[in-house]
Amino acid sequence: MDLLPYDLVEHLVQFLPRKDLETITIVACERPELSNWQLMAEQHLDERYLLDIRIFVQDQNKPEGTAKHVKLEEGEEIDDKNEEIQVYVEKHRFTGELVGPWDFKKLQVIDLGMEVIQVIQKTFAKLDIHTSTNGTNLRVEDSTRDYINHEAFLEDLRFSYRVIRNERFSQGIVTLFKERRSTPLTVEIPPDSLSYRNIQEILEHWKNSDGYVAGHKELHMQMSSDKWSTLQFKWKGKHDYLPHPLKRSSLLLSINCLKIVKFESWHLPVNFDWIDSVINDWKTRAGMYLYGSSRKIKLVMEREDWDKLEQKYWSSRMTEDRFQQRRHLAVIAHPSNLSSIELRKYRIGYMVMAEKKVKNLRLGALESFISEWMKRSGDFVVGQLRKVTVGLSFTVWERISNDRQAFYVHPHANSRLKIQASRDCDLYTMSVVSIDPETVKDWNLELLFGAE
Question: Which of 308, 242, 232, 314 minimizes the C-alpha distance to 273?
Fold first, then answer.
């Protein structure tokens, strides 16, 4: 990866989604050998834009073969770059009343939209289709089914407005979830568009598969109460997550969502020692995540472990909330006092919700924190921690940052305090890093090497 030529990097980067490009810029900024990757990623982040395609259907009395006009507006903020292109649609002749831009729900407009997708022959990572409220449009559903069946890059599919009663379309959705994919997939369809048999087919295939999941899969669809009750009885246990028999993935099943995600150890019932070790390990780290890459986890345990947890982290017993069936809250502070863990206990199935909270610093509090660090030796950010997590508003970050990071040199010139944006837009890391010799204007040699 480090030695790839510029032309090859340029070719590869154009296929990467925006989230991956943002990750590359963060990683490559401190690695000179990845300069080609950083350059191309930043260029694509600056130059990429969304195309808002608006379709205007012309008068139906125009001669056959006349081009339909499609106006492409390159985002709301780039009005001066609008352009007109012509798309020739010869396979289908539209008949009936005149259709204007205000009739976006009419079947003619929907059909033309499918024609545009076929003519431009582009692959889309996201496809959002608003179906007609005026009746069944099987052509749209069949065309969409054919499209998603051949698009490996599809990540987000959304259907709006009405219930879909098309077996070919339903089987296309089922196929998406049955196939092994290398990218995440999110599908959102109207309520009860899949039958119980369709959902059962997805779940049975997942259970009997090898359990591997490269990217998560989500199906958003509101189920009827009868359908949900049947699925609950057969599939859902005490925990929200149902682990795969081979422990490679897990199923999160709710009345409006079905998720296939990577297996985590907390998807199984845990004991007191496991929870206690997670909390103790979190205290020694920066506090960015509670466990792995999760900021919130829901745990199920036995009554004996429940009592041990209550005895250690809850100093007094409080009355139970009869309406929400929830016990009181325990807050465990991080050694940095910049973040904490909230433990909420639910009597249903002896369940605990553990969620990490981060303190949000205003500009004055941040400046005071940095000032205190400069008064100390500079070896640690705070206490014995060399890295901590903090919350900052966008306004504060704009005031202090240079691109994606900010540095403060210690008065002893032995270290720097680095503040860097994380993948979570509201979280930032503060860490102690080595000094950059080029930034030091006046070396204190006596302090560094001692007096002669």
Answer: 308
Q: To which H or E segment does residue 174 belong? A: helix 167-178
Distance (Å, whole) CA 355 – CA 62: 63
pLDDT tens-digit profile, the chain (452 residues): 556 676 777 777 777 777 778 888 777 776 777 777 778 788 877 776 555 555 444 444 455 554 444 443 333 333 344 444 444 333 333 343 444 444 544 555 556 666 666 665 556 677 777 655 554 455 556 666 666 665 566 788 887 656 566 677 777 778 777 777 777 888 888 888 888 888 888 888 888 888 877 667 888 888 888 888 888 888 876 778 889 999 988 988 888 888 888 888 899 889 999 999 999 999 888 877 888 878 888 888 888 888 888 888 875 444 444 444 445 678 888 888 888 888 887 766 667 777 778 888 888 999 999 999 999 988 999 888 889 888 888 888 888 887 678 889 888 878 899 998 876 667 888 999 887 666 555 555 555 555 55
Q: How many residues does the chain have?
A: 452
**Residue 415 belongs to what H/E stretch?**
none
Q: Per the structure block, which two tokens stand in for 421? A: 């944006």
Residue 407's closest CA among 388, 435, 376, 379? 435
Outline where DSSP puts E strands in 48-184.
52-56, 68-73, 83-87, 126-130, 156-160
Listing from the earlier edge strand, what are the strands of the sheet with 52-56? 52-56, 68-73, 83-87
Strand pairing category for 326-333 and 339-346: antiparallel
Give residues with Cβ within 8 angstroms of 377, minimum separation 6: 412
pTM of the model: 0.63
Q: Check the CA dihedral 189-194-200-201 and report its sign.
A: negative
- E strand map for 44-106: 52-56, 68-73, 83-87
Which alpha helices (DSSP H) does 376-444 contain, by range?
A: 394-400
Return the CATH number of the domain spanning residue range 123-263: 3.80.10
Strands (E), 27-182: 52-56, 68-73, 83-87, 126-130, 156-160
